[in-house]
């Protein structure tokens, strides 16, 4: 299953085939925020969770809606979902039928159904991790940028210059050229890896690391949150400084062990390409289309940054922001 996910489902090419769906959902979100009266307060955390679920459900169940590129047909081929559904002829399957009948509009229900049917299979993990992690990253990036207005100005300038010059809405063709945006994303992953503790793993052999013997079968959990804030790897580790990545080759792809938001090695996240695309897409859109202000005269330095707990770690308290639409000159 893992091989199918990485080889077939979530390759760069496959993620590109999801683009129209993902872009459509991002643009729906921008319209929704834009429909607020100018300066209206939006619960950005809530909106990001909904768009994340909608994106994952629509890419997972796209074929049902007649869209190409869904990864569910592959999952169907190996019959895992089918097995679960037929094993459990109960309330959850009724939900599934209803959602299918309505063309998959009840997207959150589909995720609920998968959750209810799961024995912790990889495809269900994929939907769960896929739905949450990118929105959580964007939520933290926006929080850090609100706390650091000069970084916000800098990244908005870059994003707007790029897309105004192109004279079109935000698309992925030039994400690679948005160097500061990239650094903002890396810095967000460093301070707020959405999955701070890896999935527990067991070593197959006894190994010695830095003189410490780890017997075979020991359960290992890697704490990427602690690594990201370790002062032996990072200067001013608690400060949000995207500039540290501008002239650095450090990336999040599992080769630089001081920055491993997706894990590393053979068990690293198979959804990285998909996840990172969604982060850029949402963040670039939010930064391009709106100016953002903290409501109720909250000062940037007073913005609450408490973390929740759980497998994926979002903000403890929702991020409420005033949105002011940006009109290109
Ligand atoms: C910003 C986005 C994401 C981040 C930061 C992230 C991070 C992670 C991390 C840290 C792990 C554990 C790796 C380990 O234990 O060594 C993981 C596992 C996994 N992720 Fe992601 N993930 C993201 C997006 C996604 C997406 C979009 C999908 C699928 C659509 C996905 C599917 C999975 C699956 C199936 C696993 C389990 C792999 C296994 O057990 O072998 N992830 N992810």
Automatic annotation (TrEMBL):
UniProt membrane topology term: Single-pass membrane protein
Swiss-Prot/TrEMBL cofactor(s): heme
Highest taxon of source: Eukaryota
GO terms, molecular function: heme binding; iron ion binding; monooxygenase activity; oxidoreductase activity, acting on paired donors, with incorporation or reduction of molecular oxygen
Transmembrane segments: 271-290
KW Metal-binding (keyword) present: yes
Family label: Belongs to the cytochrome P450 family.
Protein name: Cytochrome P450
């Amino acid at each position: 299953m893992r091989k199918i996910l990485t080889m077939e489902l979530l390759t760069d090419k496959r993620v590109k085939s999801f683009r129209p769906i993902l872009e459509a959902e991002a643009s729906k979100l921008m319209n929704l925020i834009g429909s607020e009266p100018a300066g209206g307060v939006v619960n950005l955390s809530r909106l990001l969770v909904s768009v994340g679920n909608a994106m994952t459900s629509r890419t997972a169940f796209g074929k049902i809606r007649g869209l190409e590129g869904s990864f569910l047909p592959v999952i169907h081929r190996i019959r895992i979902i089918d097995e679960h559904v037929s094993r459990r002829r109960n309330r959850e399957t009724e939900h599934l039928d209803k959602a299918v009948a309505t063309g998959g509009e009840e997207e959150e229900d589909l995720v609920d159904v998968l959750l209810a049917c799961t024995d912790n299979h990889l495809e269900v993990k994929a939907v769960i991790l896929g739905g949450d992690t990118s929105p959580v990253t964007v939520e933290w990036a926006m929080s850090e940028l609100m706390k650091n207005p000069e970084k916000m100005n800098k990244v908005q300038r870059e994003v707007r210059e790029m897309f105004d010059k192109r004279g079109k809405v935000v698309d992925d063709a030039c994400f690679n050229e948005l160097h500061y945006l990239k650094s903002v994303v890396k810095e967000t992953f460093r301070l707020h890896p959405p999955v701070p503790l890896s999935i527990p793993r067991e070593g197959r052999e006894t190994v010695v690391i830095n003189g410490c013997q780890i017997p075979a079968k020991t359960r290992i959990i890697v704490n990427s949150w602690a690594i990201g804030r370790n002062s032996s790897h990072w200067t001013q580790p608690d400060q949000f400084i995207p500039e540290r990545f501008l002239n650095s080759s450090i990336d999040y792809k599992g080769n630089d062990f001081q920055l491993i938001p997706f894990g590393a090695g053979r068990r690293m996240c198979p959804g990285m390409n998909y996840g990172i695309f969604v982060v850029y897409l949402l963040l670039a859109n939010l930064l391009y289309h709106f100016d953002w202000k903290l409501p109720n005269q909250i000062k940037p330095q007073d913005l609450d940054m408490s973390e929740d707990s759980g497998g994926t770690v979002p903000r403890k308290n929702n991020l409420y922001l005033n949105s002011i639409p940006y009109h290109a000159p």
